[in-house]
Amino acid sequence: MSKTHRILILGGGFGGLYTALELEKKLAEYPNVEVTLVNRENFFLFTPMLHEVAAADLDLTNIVNPVRKLLRKVDFFAGEVEAIDLAERTVTVSHGFVRHAHEMKFDQLVLGLGSSTNFFHLPGLEEHALTMRSLSDAINLRNRVIALLEEAETECAHSTVRKALLTFVVAGGGFAGVETIGSINDFVHECLRFFPNIRQDNIRMVLVHRGPVLLPELSSSLGQYTQESLRQRGIEVRLNTKVEGYVDGKVVLSDGSAFLTQTLVWTAGTTAHPLIAALPCAKEGGRIIVDDTLEVKGLPNVWAIGDCALVPDRTTGKYYPPTAQNALRQGRVLAQNMLATVAGESRKPFSFETLGQLATIGRRTGVANILGKNFQGFLAWWLWRTIYLSKLPRLEKKVRVALDWTLDLLFSKDLVQYVTLRPTKPVSKS
Q1: CA–CA distances in Å: residue 315 to residues 90, 144, 319, 350, 354
Q2: Which residues make Cβ contacts (< 8 Å) with residue 208, sequence separation at least 6?
Q3: How far apart are CA 280 and CA 89, in angstroms?
Q4: Burial code of 153-168, b = ≥16 C-beta within 10 A, e = fewer?
Q5: pTM for the structure as a whole
Q6: Are 396 and 62 in contact (CB under 8 A)?
Q7: 125-268+356-410 domain in CATH 3.30.470.20?
Q8: Cβ atoms 145, 303 nearer than 8 A
């Protein structure tokens, strides 16, 4: 009997999941290959639609897919990766309500752990800023917005308190920041008819971006269009400005201004996953350097993919950007290369030309660059929904999202908080 060849995939994002999906198609041809995917959550999150959950456009369960429904031949382990020992070729994973560890051996290892939020050691941010990277982040932001509207509606103190409650700040003018501020702005203003004590001019939305133009991943013309569209909707756009900290309930900006707010959403920086940072391999900017077959340089049968990897683009001489469309295609090529390694065959270099990039900016408006052509307005928004709906895994989820979008045209947004927080101590009467 031939020895079992163990492939271990760490991370269930676009890169890790699509590696597993591609391997699953071929496992019948490799009976001695055993594949295990390890991920903290038991679902795959479709991150491009995350802001729509925060703004109550979509139900939270409709942009996630249970991994066990996606994978039937690949084993799945729901747990936290605690340590990676490349010398002993083992990974330590913990799980359970009472945390206990498992040691998992591998012959080939895929590093797809993604990245973490980088707060750049700015005062108060890690303790108080919200992020937009996970499903819980979107739920927390939605809950925060609704709770603040409820509090502002019945606020009996002086006007500065209400002003702070109704000031919303997003740091970062990339895709995540622009889509978040646009969605939240729509959500808040559409909800105001249910809050008679709050006026339109009570709401303050601020987008802070360190660069000279929004959405630097797209053309400057689309960035300018985005900037003007947001400003027409009452959103303050602070360009060439950085958040310096969050101190005593105030956001402090690099231009010297500061203002009270209860909501700061940070989308302005990422850093390497702590386990990736500790690995003894070549890195640049915290990301692992791989060759064009996605193998980590100097570490045979260890591969890296997605946000945590620097994949060389032979056409441009640079690196591929850490986008979902690149990660899922890397996963497909990586699966083929790992099986080629098992069979002793030649590997395939990764090569892909970006098809396009799209963003929604609120009120059924978007911007897009597809195959080198720019689109803006309603058409770009329609393209965004059409393309991402087609990319969402499983027909069931596609139908549920399409139904949510249809119902959103007919009914007002849901104001229910998923978690209701109540005071734990008696409060004095004012």
Answers
A1: 36, 45, 10, 11, 12
A2: 169, 170, 171, 172, 173, 238, 241, 242, 243, 253, 268
A3: 13
A4: eebeeeeeebbbbbbb
A5: 0.93
A6: no
A7: no
A8: no
Identical fold for domains 5-40+79-117+271-343 and 125-268+356-410, yes or no, is: yes
C-alpha 387/C-alpha 380 separation (Å) is: 10
Q: Which residues pair with 259 in a beta bridge?
A: 251
Give 5-40+79-117+271-343's CATH code, choosing from 3.40.1440.10, 3.40.50.1000, 3.40.980.10, 3.50.50.60: 3.50.50.60
CB atoms within 10 A of CB 319: 17
Cβ 77 vs Cβ 67: under 8 Å: no
Separation CA 263–CA 187 (nearest Å): 15
The predicted-structure confidence for 311-368, as pLDDT tens digits, reads as follows: 999 888 999 998 999 999 999 999 999 999 999 999 999 999 888 999 999 999 999 9
User: Is the distance from CB of 159 to CB of 169 less than 8 angstroms?
Assistant: no
| DSSP element (H, E) containing 232 | helix 220-232
Of 380, 354, 353, 356, residue with least CA distance to 366: 380
What DSSP string describes 326-347?
Answer: HHHHHHHHHHHHHHHHHHTPPP
Pair 16, 39: CB distance under 8 Å = yes
What is the C-alpha separation between 418 and 295, in angstroms, rounded? 43
Q: Which amino acid is at 36?
A: T
DSSP state of 414: P
DSSP letters, 153-197, are: HT--S-HHHHHHHTEEEEE--SHHHHHHHHHHHHHHHHHGGG-TT
Query: Would you list the domain boundaries of the chain?
Result: 5-40+79-117+271-343, 125-268+356-410
Q: List pLDDT tens digits, range 200-236.
A: 999 999 999 999 999 999 999 999 999 999 999 999 9
Q: Are 306 and 15 in contact (CB under 8 A)?
A: yes
Q: How far is CA 225 from the centre of its chain?
A: 24
